[in-house]
Design goal:
The chain is α/β, with parallel strands linked by helices. It contains 14 helices and 15 strands. It has 2 domains: about 250 residues, Aldolase class I (TIM Barrel); about 55 residues, no CATH class.
């Protein structure tokens, strides 16, 4: 069931989330800093067995039913879909669960989608990034642009409730016209949700070692305004700085994070949050499998967040959404200083489009309530 959510709802109403990490990839993109590995396919079978064990342990210890499940990576479609669904069937879930799997467009077939849907998946997120071949090369992506159309057509025919397309703007060699063509091509495929991210440079990536390919802030701003305009023309509106959707197609799993809600994390490098305790698993699949098979916890470390920190984090995330933050989160002086970047809507402060481009500057002035 598709429900338009509001971050104003209590986190308990948004529901409990589950994130599952699949760390395997055929190729590591030049900008990727996630815990992904191209040389660990020999671990896939053992890794899935460890995932099953970790999930069962949590379930036996009282894991709440999931209102949202998100399977990310890595490339979840790198793993046999039947085996993956079999493992994920161990997760207790509510009847109206939003169940998302990230997909590489080259892997999407009617058979794969049928298997996912049979396992309860209601939503997929397709990593398109660009429809322009030279831009994909600049990003270090390897998928074939023509397969994007086939993948999205297959999703439309699959019976899934909704889906998302991920895009990235700001790659070296990408003109404003290139970006416009990408967004227009995706919108023309009747996509109900788009996530568009400005390219960022993360330490340890190939991109970080090639400064000539680093994004330009003015270029990023121009492309942000362009995607906002083009998607609005097709009925997709911003509900968070990097996310646009038709009403009813917003991602509930995101709302779990943005509302400061509780969620479990399974797999290597997966994060979890319960009642102010944030924890994360060991990063490599090798170590994760070893620990789980030895009957030990895969948790690497944790931190306990005090009430003020939790409140501030939630405000910083809420500011990014269409619901904004309470008036009291900014002083009168700060509200005056940020004129043009913020607007007052009833008893809330929301970012204008200009403010979305400078959201970090505004968030630094937020104060816990």
């Amino acid at each position: 069931m598709l429900v338009t959510w509001s971050i104003l709802a209590p986190a308990a109403d948004i529901g409990f989330g589950v994130y599952v990490h699949v760390p395997f990839c055929r190729h590591k993109c030049d900008y990727c800093a996630f815990a992904t590995f191209t040389d660990r396919d020999h671990l896939i079978e053992r890794y899935l067995g460890a995932l099953r064990t970790e999930i069962r342990r949590a379930r036996d210890a009282g894991l709440p039913p999931a209102r949202t499940i998100f399977v990310g990576g890595g490339t979840p479609t790198r793993v046999d879909p039947s085996l993956l669904m079999d493992v994920l069937a161990e997760i207790p879930r509510e009847s109206d669960v939003e169940f998302t799997v990230e997909c590489n467009p080259d892997d999407v077939t009617p058979a794969l989608l049928a298997t996912y849907r049979g396992g309860g998946v209601s939503r997929v997120s397709i990593g398109v990034q660009s429809t322009r071949e030279h831009v994909l090369v600049s990003l270090g992506r390897t998928h074939v642009p023509r397969n994007v159309v086939a993948a999205i057509e297959a999703v439309h025919e699959s019976g899934l409730a909704t889906f998302n397309v991920d895009l990235i703007y700001g790659a070296a060699g990408e003109t404003l016209d290139d970006w416009s063509q990408t967004v227009s091509a995706i919108a023309a495929l009747d996509v109900p949700h788009v996530s568009a991210y400005g390219l960022t440079v993360e330490a340890g990536t190939v991109l970080a070692t090639t400064p000539a390919r680093h994004p330009n802030d003015d270029d990023l701003a121009d492309k942000y305004e362009r995607v906002d305009d083009l998607l609005a023309e097709h009925g997709l509106f911003s509900y968070e700085i990097s996310n646009w959707a038709r009403p009813g197609h917003e991602c509930r799993h995101n709302a779990v994070y943005w509302s400061g809600g509780d969620y479990a994390g399974f797999g290597s490098a997966a994060h979890a949050h319960r009642n102010g305790r944030r924890a994360w698993n060991v990063r490599t699949p090798d170590r994760y499998v070893e620990l789980i098979e030895a009957g030990e916890s895969a948790e690497s470390s944790h931190e306990n967040l005090d009430a003020a920190t939790r409140c501030l984090e939630r405000l910083q995330l809420a500011l990014r959404t269409r619901d904004g933050v309470p008036l009291g989160a900014l002083s009168d002086d700060d509200r005056a200083e940020f004129e043009g970047l913020i607007a007052v809507a009833g008893d809330r402060i929301v970012l204008t489009r200009a403010g979305r481009l400078l959201a970090n500057e505004v968030s630094l002035r937020l104060r816990p309530l």
